[in-house]
Amino acid sequence: MTWKCVSESAIGETILRAESIFGEVRYDKRISDSFKLSPFIAIRTSNKTQQGYTETSANNPLTYNTINIQADTLLIGTHINKSLSDRFAINTVLGLEYDTSYNASSIAPTGINGLTTVNLESDYEDKRAVIALGFDYDYDQEKKLITKIQYNKLPYSGMSETTFYMNLQFAF
Question: What is the dihedral of CA 58, 59, 65, 67, to 10 degrees?
Answer without folding.
Answer: -30
